[in-house]
TrEMBL record:
Gene Ontology MF: a single term: alpha-amylase activity
Glycosyl hydrolase family 13 catalytic domain residues: 39-448
InterPro entries in alphabetical order: GH, GH13_cat_dom, O16G_dom_2
Name listed for the protein in its UniProt record: Oligo-1,6-glucosidase
């Protein structure tokens, strides 16, 4: 016997849960408040030049497919000149395109074509660190200790009698010490430099005004080329606590016993806000509302919301949401606290379920035994996700997310229901996490596998030559874009329908209220305008209230007024 959701519809408690902020009056101007932004991971999107690595011409060629998805913008992960030690997040020249991706002319062609489709292009700004091959770091190595060239980075003398110990105990995100000792130009063992990531990624010294000048120049370089804004890498790390004190918590700054995350000396320091404000002024001096989106892992949400005050960033990814477990109570708590926290500063919440750093949500939701650290990847020796369970839940969760007011980021391939490659041979792994931890943490290659475009072509049409920098699983033909385009029940067509409807019904601009509490804790039900979105995260079927079925996460979902587990629907309330 299905339990019932048909509670009396009025009055909705919490109809003003999300008060309409004054700034929303201008909502049509503020495109980013409700935008859908599609993340492109260039090396895995489409390879037009046949070397097995995706490129800018490949992205241009793929734009019509994204226009069909009706996205507002694309965010391109780094395509700048780089030795590719961390897949481009080790930038050697911020104002040049790496030859593996193409040329600046290719970028101009891409933005022009995107504009024809009404799609903005957002680029990735990596201000915390550069590549050790960057001219500034090479100059620092060649200069003496204490010189202006060294002051661009965080060099310190080592501890111990001969300076043989790192200056503090900080650990790299990717494993091992966050310090590397250099050999001075005269051949003697010398100072140490800080790198919160790989040793090939030295951290800039943001206490030095010359670093500010350098990045203002970079911002203007891309703004002058018409970009729609920047996703800002590790935005919470730029300023370090003075004195660089030891830290007993985790390397990523997250809380551990005795070490609350808000005290991490390498993250979330107050001086950051002045940097964001100065960048915001620069962006605001350009036409067309260019945006800043912070990648910041900051707890709690109230503190994260400080990043998006009216004169700072426009958006910040909601990683608490990305990590939500398959649990309705917990999901409701995260949604509610997010909307409250961000509304307090007049900012939208920016929802996201997948990106290039975490196990894809199809695979996460398919893990019945749980998975502690999604950034560490899944390998052949791990329990394997249940693909079909994961896909059903991922489709349901995406539909629920698209009903929420605010902005949304999608990660390339999620519209195809791609899982992670969980049986990737270790020989193929490129993520520095794998190599710096001697394979203990597998890293993120599994979620970065090249996209399948055509079922029957070599490398599923990803590359014109059939080459692919990471091998694709052998059973992806059914997931290829061309197959899914022809199948009305496909994940691709679900995304298209949901995104079209989301825009038509202006759900991104809406407000949220909970459908009256129900005794079935496994159900999440929210009202946005006259749409009721319901997701069944419990174990049994649920009776839906009367209403017009607008869309279901599964072709049969909500038919006959019943919602089965692991599905979601949008209903127009009767
Ligand atoms: C966050 C990026 O998303 C990730 O891919 C990268 O490895 C680190 N920042 C370092 O830039």
């Amino acid at each position: 016997m299905p339990s019932s959701l048909a509670a009396p519809p009025a009055p909705l408690p919490g109809a003003s849960l999300v008060p309409v902020h004054d700034a929303w009056a201008e909502r049509d101007r503020h495109w980013w408040r409700s935008s859908v932004i599609y993340q492109i991971y260039p090396r895995s999107f489409r390879d037009l030049r046949g070397d097995g690595i995706g490129d800018l011409p490949g992205i241009t060629a793929g734009l019509p497919a994204l226009a069909e998805l009706d996205v507002d913008a694309v965010w391109l992960s780094p395509f700048f000149k780089s030795p590719q030690k961390d897949a481009g997040y080790d930038v050697a020249d911020y104002c040049a395109v790496d030859p593996i991706f193409g040329t600046l002319e290719d970028f101009n062609a891409l933005t022009a074509e995107a504009a024809r489709h009404g799609i903005r292009v957002i680029v990735d700004l990596v201000p915390n660190h550069c590549s050790d091959q960057h001219a500034l770091f090479q100059a620092a190595l060649a200069a003496p200790a204490g010189s202006p060239a060294r002051e661009m980075f965080i060099f310190r003398d080592g501890r111990g009698e001969h300076g043989e110990l790192p200056p503090n105990n900080w650990q790299s995100h990717f494993g091992g010490s966050a310090w590397t000792r250099i050999t001075e130009p005269d051949g003697t063992p010398g100072q140490w430099y800080l790198h919160l990531f790989d040793s090939s990624q030295p951290d800039f010294n943001w206490d030095n005004p010359a670093v500010h000048d350098e990045f203002e120049r970079i911002l203007r370089f891309w703004l002058d080329r018409g970009v729609g804004g920047f996703r800002v890498d590790v935005a919470h790390a730029l300023i370090k606590k003075s004195g660089l004190p030891d830290w007993g918590g985790r390397a990523d700054g997250s809380s551990s016993e005795g070490f609350p995350g808000h005290e991490a000396p390498m993250f979330g320091q107050d001086g950051i806000h002045d940097i964001f404000r100065s960048w915001r002024q620069i962006l605001d001096s350009y036409d067309g509302e260019r945006v800043l989106c912070a990648e910041a892992t900051i707890d709690p949400l109230d503190r994260l919301a400080q990043w998006v005050r009216p004169d700072e960033m426009h958006q910040t990814f909601n990683f608490a949401y990305l990590h939500h477990p398959w649990n309705a109570w917990e999901l409701r708590r995260i949604i509610e606290s997010s909307l409250r926290a961000f509304d307090r500063v007049g900012a939208p919440t920016t929802w996201v379920l997948s990106n290039h750093d975490v196990v894809r949500h199809v695979s996460r939701f398919g893990m019945t035994s749980g998975h502690a650290r999604p950034g560490d990847g899944l390998g052949p020796a791990d329990p394997q996700p249940d693909y079909w369970l994961g896909l059903a839940r991922a489709r349901a969760a995406t539909l629920l997310m698209l009903a929420l007011p605010g902005g949304v980021y999608l990660y390339q391939g999620e519209e195809l229901g791609l899982p992670d490659h969980t049986t990737l041979d270790h020989d193929h792994r490129q993520d520095p996490t794998f190599h710096r931890t001697a394979g203990e943490r597998l890293g993120r290659d599994g979620c970065r596998v090249p996209l399948p475009w055509t079922a029957d072509a070599p490398a599923y049409g990803f590359s014109s030559s059939g080459a692919s920098w990471l091998p694709q699983p052998g059973d992806w033909a059914g997931l290829a874009r061309d197959r899914q385009a022809a199948d009305p029940g496909s994940t691709l067509n679900l995304y298209k329908a949901a995104l079209r409807l989301r825009r038509k019904l202006a759900l991104g601009h809406g407000t949220l209220a909970w459908w009256p509490e129900h005794d079935d804790a496994g159900v999440i039900a929210l009202v946005n305008g006259d749409v009721l979105a319901v997701m069944n995260m419990g174990g049994g079927p649920v009776q839906l209230p009367a209403g017009e079925l607008l869309l279901g996460s599964h072709p049969e979902a909500g038919r006959d007024g019943v919602l089965h587990p692991d599905t979601s629907v949008w209903l127009r309330l009767a």
